[in-house]
Amino acid sequence: MSSSERMTNAQLLQQVALLRWLSSQSDEDRGLLTALTGIQVGKELFNRITGQDKVDAFKRECILGISEFVRQNKRATKAEINAEVEKRVLIFAAQVKALEETPLF
């Protein structure tokens, strides 16, 4: 199973709460399920409104790109590494700026 197919911790907790409620039908378990679902919905809304999940993905991409450059260019000079870092950071900044200018819906 790839990491993209795995449930997040929040999804797993929600499924556990759902399973508990389905087996017990108790008000306590329904309240737990409602709270966990509300938290997950709130987090998703926050990410969609702010684009934070995309910013985090761009940041990972930037860092991985820099590390890949260093790995493939073991004899690169400090100036070459600095130039690559600057290039990658400028790309990251442009991606974030483009997100800010994109309509929410």
TrEMBL record:
It comes from Cynoglossus semilaevis (Tongue sole). This is Si:ch211-191j22.3. It comes from the Eukaryota.
